[in-house]
Design brief:
The complex is a heterodimer of chains A (about 260) and B (about 750). Chain A is of the alpha/beta class and about 260 residues long. Chain A has one domain: Domain of unknown function DUF4159 (Rossmann fold, 3-Layer(aba) Sandwich), CATH 3.40.50. Chain A contains eight helices and seven strands, in the order H-H-E-H-E-E-H-E-H-E-E-E-H-H-H. Chain A has a seven-stranded mixed sheet with strand order 2-1-3-4-7-6-5. In chain A, strand 3, helix 4 and strand 4 form a beta-alpha-beta unit. Chain B has about 750 residues and is of the alpha+beta class. Chain B has five domains: about 100 residues, no CATH class; about 170 residues, von Willebrand factor, type A domain (Rossmann fold), CATH 3.40.50; about 100 residues, Immunoglobulins (Immunoglobulin-like); about 250 residues, 3-Layer(aba) Sandwich (Rossmann fold); about 100 residues, Immunoglobulins (Immunoglobulin-like, Sandwich). Chain B contains 15 helices and 39 strands. In chain B, strand 13 and strand 14 form a beta hairpin. In chain B, helix 1 packs antiparallel against helix 2 and helix 2 packs antiparallel against helix 15. The longest helix of chain B has 23 residues. Chain B starts with a strand and ends with a helix. Classes of the chains: A alpha/beta (about 260), B alpha+beta (about 750). Chains A and B meet through helix 4, helix 7 and helix 8 of A and helix 6, strand 19 and helix 11 of B.
Chain lengths: ~260, ~750
């Protein structure tokens, strides 16, 4: 090894250890198991379906680091008309701008998907109520579940207790301190966050956070990751944390 | 005897007019004769003519002779003797025996009918056209001389109904004499307002109401079904007669074991107290209970001191414990299936974090709870019916010795299901655990888990009939349904199946032909092995294919019921046994299925019946003409709860067993309340214009009173009257002819002609 080669390798080690602590931390120590979870993101017509293309991998890494879930590192992009849509019971939809209405077939598919065990996380990348993406997604969800409107999730909702005991809703901004949801029967198959979670999760290829979280900074970003993990676990365990066996433990911890 | 009556229809004024005319004619005749004859001769001839006119006037009144014949008939009398079981009760206290119960009510009746130089029954036979019947639930004629042979065995007293029957058959001249204690427990127990009988009924009350001493348990209202672990309540009534100021214990037993007892303070001669007791059953199956009060001194009826009843205890829910190695879609949809089933109570643990996962917050900010290993495996396991190991490996969490408890749990009748995944079977390290011999597949540590490919399930021959894989009732439709379920993408390969394979792996992959769903038995319990963690696809992917998710839901629910040994999933099933009557033969039917759930007539069936005191009887069960159906015949000997146990084997291998129970009881409750009902007997007598007599007051005059009452109701003499109209007979005109001839002859003699 000549001096040039040594410096090259050394510089890469320094960069890796010093500049990319996140990647080092995220390396998964567990033996790789079969993939149990795939983060599927909906592509739609019009608007901007992909405002944060690098947001999912950091969340998946965090998910595997913190929990027992084995997840695919990369997201899977799906159209609502794809034949394999139901292979991915967890769907994510985000955007900034208004988009074209879904077709009737897409609406019917989404209704079936959400009525029979699927989960949809809606993330508003613009954060303007009544405008842009918010306007379109509310319109479409009204078509999916006519007569069922978004309601604020109570602080004791299972989605806020499925792993972390969440007291704050993170994101790139804090447009709303709460989550909204559509409840069907005893479960909430649709959860809507207006704080731009994707913006908080996104990290560039060098491992640097793409966006700054305001006003809470890194703590707010951490809350966004916690919320993402909670919502994934909620989708995979439903209201498991509402089982009676958990209630006294959770109550005890919340009162500390 | 003949009497003269006038039945003429000629008006009196016309007769008077004719009489007046006749007198005028006689006067004219007299004066006419006087000119030619002497006064005496004239008077004589006018007299003769007056006789003629008088007779004719007499006939105008329509004279008739009425002849009366009186015939005395032999009056019919129907005697009814109550020979129901309540007539075995003492008629009263025998004062000569220091208050000990006297002869039975029926014996007293027989004694009364047979006493004296000329027994009453003979006198009745002499004076009446006698018909004697015994009655209870039916009316049967008996010969008068066979009264002494009567025994009080009838199971009920349809007193009012049978009285009406007897009254209709008796005829209007008849009377009915009833010897009874007045207990009526047929459809009619009280005489309806306005009810009457066409003939007089003379009721003879048997049994003392004064001094009647009895305490009884009655009106027990217990649920037919109860749920394990849930308290049920039962209501009862304690009644007592003639036991004022006494205190009696009431015992509530399950089988022979005391559940609880109460003290009952009797504070009135005619005492009634309603009570409520409760019990929390801990075992499923039929339970026999009894409520009893010990026999008290001087008590005349002891049969009603206890009541037996049966409660079928069922599990309210099937308690399922699931242990999942990590959050997964299989858990998500497994949970959904169980939560939607009202029969299932789910307790689940999902390992959200492994020991190697790191968290960035203190534990206080996590919702994770410690896995209560000791509580689950040492304490609570017995309270579950089914345990699911869902892609769960014990290795990272607890010592394998805990799995010994799971093995014991299955051996004692629990259900165990292991679902596939990277943490299951060989991959989960179970080859070295106690569950190796429990599971229905052979694992040797060399098996593997792979998550790729497309593996369609294939229904095996056993799977076609097994209740777990019976998605649709029609066999062909069921097979077709299985061809449409979405293929799987993961598989746990093991060495071989050991139990009964219901599904095999299809497709072209290396797992082709391997058991996919296998069931088996271990000890008293059942086991299931599903070699994939991917069956959520049979739900959600099916929905995406616009198919029903029901196949997945049914498979889960049916698996749980089979594992929990729900009766409807048993291979030996005793058919429901209706209420039986003591002394009547009943058929106990059962159905026997092979391990593949096909009916068989080759099974060896053991059928045992345990009586109210637990006395066992072995009953021969024979195969019926219909495949899989068996029948045993049994005759319960007395009232009470009977337990039935059946087990079957085929070729020495047990197929299963079932338990059931039935009650034997007389429908009339003769022994419930043995108080004589003199009021009812009096009401019957009054409404029929008869009379009531106490048997103790029966004497010589009683028969005379009965005879007088009957006579006033319908006399026993028949009066026959024959009427002869005098004016319409030839002989009545003879005097007229005689008078006229004499007059003619005298006139000729005296030269008037």
């Amino acid at each position: 090894m000549n001096r040039r080669s040594f410096l090259c390798i050394f510089s890469k080690i320094v960069l890796t250890a010093g500049l990319l602590p996140g990647i080092a931390r995220a390396s998964h120590p567990r033996e790789k198991g079969p993939i149990q979870f795939v983060f599927a993101q909906i592509k739609y017509r019009g608007g901007d379906w992909n405002p944060h293309p690098l947001s999912v991998t950091p969340l998946m890494e965090e998910l595997m680091l913190r929990t027992s879930v084995e997840a695919a590192a990369a997201r899977h992009e799906v159209n609502l008309t794809d034949r394999d849509l139901f292979n991915y019971p967890f769907l994510y939809i985000t955007g900034r701008y208004e988009f074209e209405p879904f077709t009737e077939e897409e609406i019917e598919t989404l209704r079936l998907f959400l009525s029979f065990g699927g989960f949809l996380l809606i993330d508003d990348g613009l954060g303007q109520q009544g405008y842009g993406f918010d306007k379109s997604i509310r319109r479409e969800m009204q078509r999916v579940f006519p007569g069922n409107s978004f309601k604020r999730l109570p602080t004791g909702h299972a989605a806020l207790r499925s792993y972390y005991l969440l007291r704050r809703i993170g994101g790139m901004r804090v447009v709303s301190p709460t989550l909204d949801g559509l409840t069907v029967g005893n479960s909430t198959p649709v959860v809507y966050c207006q704080n731009n979670l994707g913006g908080a999760w996104e990290r560039d290829q060098l491992g640097k956070w793409t966006n700054t979280c305001t006003p809470g900074g890194e703590e707010q970003r951490r809350d966004a990751f916690h919320l993402g993990i909670n919502l994934i676990l909620y989708a995979m365990t439903e209201n498991y944390k509402e089982d009676l066996i958990h209630v006294p433990f959770i109550r005890k911890r919340l009162t500390r | 005897m003949k009497d003269l009556y006038f039945v003429g229809s000629v008006p009196w004024w016309l007769i008077a007019l004719i009489a007046f005319g006749s007198l005028a004619l006689l006067a004219q005749q007299f004066f006419s004769l006087r000119r030619r004859l002497s006064t005496g001769q004239s008077i004589f001839l006018v007299f003769l003519r007056a006789c003629v006119y008088g007779l004719l006037l007499f006939f105008l009144f329509g004279p008739a002779l009425v002849e009366t014949h009186v015939t005395k008939l032999r009056r019919p009398l129907t005697v009814l003797i109550d020979d129901s079981q309540s007539m075995t009760f003492p008629a009263g206290l025998d004062r000569a025996q220091e208050g000990e119960p006297g002869p039975s009510r029926l014996d007293l009746v027989k004694e009364k009918l047979a006493e004296g130089q000329e027994p009453l029954i003979q006198r009745l036979s002499r004076d009446y056209d006698l018909q004697v019947y015994r009655f209870g639930t039916s009316l049967e004629p008996i010969a008068p001389h066979s009264v002494p042979q009567l025994t009080a065995q009838d199971q009920g007293t349809r007193l009012l109904e049978l009285l009406q029957v007897a009254a209709k058959e008796a005829g209007s001249q008849s009377g009915i004499l009833v010897f009874s204690d007045g207990i009526a427990n047929g459809d009619s127990q009280k005489l309806a307002a306005g009810s009457t009988f066409p003939v007089p009924v003379f009721t003879v009350g048997v049994g003392d109401t004064e001094g009647f001493t009895d305490v009884r348990v009655t009106d027990v209202r217990a649920p037919e079904f109860a749920f394990r672990g849930r308290e049920f309540k039962l209501d009862l009534t304690v009644q007592a007669s003639g036991m004022k100021d006494k205190t009696v214990p009431l015992y509530f037993n399950r089988g022979r074991g005391l559940v609880t007892s109460r003290t009952v303070r009797i504070d009135a001669d005619d005492f009634t107290q309603k009570m409520t007791l409760s019990f929390t059953p801990t075992e499923i199956g039929p339970h026999s209970f009894s409520l009893s009060i010990p026999t008290q001194a001087g008590e005349q009826i002891t049969q009603n001191n206890s009541k037996n009843f049966k409660v079928e205890v069922q599990r309210d829910k099937i308690r399922v414990l699931t242990l999942s190695g990590s959050p997964a879609w299989n858990y998500r949809f497994l949970r959904m299936a169980m939560k939607q089933d009202p029969l299932i109570e789910l307790v689940s643990f999902v390992f959200l974090r492994t020991p190697t996962d790191s968290v960035d917050v203190p534990d206080s900010q996590l919702s994770l709870i410690p896995f209560p290993i000791d509580d689950i495996f040492l304490e609570e396991l017995k309270n579950f019916d089914v345990v699911f190991f869902d892609d769960f490996s014990h290795r990272a969490y607890f010592n394998p010795v805990y799995l010994d408890n799971v093995k014991d749990f299955v051996r004692e009748g629990g259900g165990l299901a292991m679902l596939g995944g990277v943490r299951s079977f060989d991959s989960g390290g179970y080859a070295d655990s106690a569950l190796r011999e429990v599971l229905p597949v052979e694992i040797d540590g060399k098996g593997s888990y792979h998550a790729h490919g497309s593996i369609p399930p294939e229904l095996t021959a056993s799977g076609k009939a097994h209740p777990i894989t019976r998605l649709l009732p029609d066999p062909r439709a069921n097979e077709e349904a299985w061809t449409k379920v979405p293929p799987l993408t993961s598989f746990n390969q093991v060495r071989a199946g050991r139990g009964q394979a219901l599904l095999r792996a299809g497709g072209d992959g290396p797992s082709k032909g391997s058991p996919l769903l296998t069931v088996g038995r271990f000890g008293k319990g059942r086991t299931l092995a599903l070699m994939t963690d991917d069956i959520w696809r049979w739900n959600f992917i099916a929905v995406g294919n616009r198919q029903s998710p029901q196949n997945h839901l049914k498979l889960i629910r049916q698996s749980i019921r089979w594992l929990a040994q729900e009766p409807s999933f048993e291979q030996v099933q005793i058919r429901p046994i209706p209420l039986a009557r003591p002394g009547e033969k009943i058929a106990i039917k059962l159905r026997v299925l092979k391990d593949d759930f096909m009916p068989t007539h080759r099974a060896s069936v053991q059928l045992r019946v345990f009586g109210p005191e637990g006395e066992p009887s072995l009953v021969a069960a024979k195969a019926d003409s219909e495949e899989g159906e068996y029948t045993g015949e049994y005759t319960p000997t007395r009232e009470g709860s009977y337990r039935v146990e059946a087990d079957a084997s085929l070729g020495g291998k047990p197929l299963g067993k079932d338990r059931s129970s039935f009650s034997a009881a007389f429908p009339y409750g003769e022994a419930d309340d043995g108080r004589p009902r003199t009021e009812l007997l009096k009401t019957i007598a009054e409404s029929s214009r008869g009379a009531y007599f106490s048997i103790n007051d029966w004497n010589e005059k009683t028969l005379e009173q009965i005879a007088a009452k009957l006579e006033s109701h319908a006399p026993s003499q028949i009066v026959e009257r024959r009427q002869t109209q005098l004016w319409s007979t030839l002989w009545t005109f003879l005097p007229i002819l005689v008078f006229l001839c004499v007059e003619w002859w005298m006139r000729r003699k005296w030269g008037l002609l």
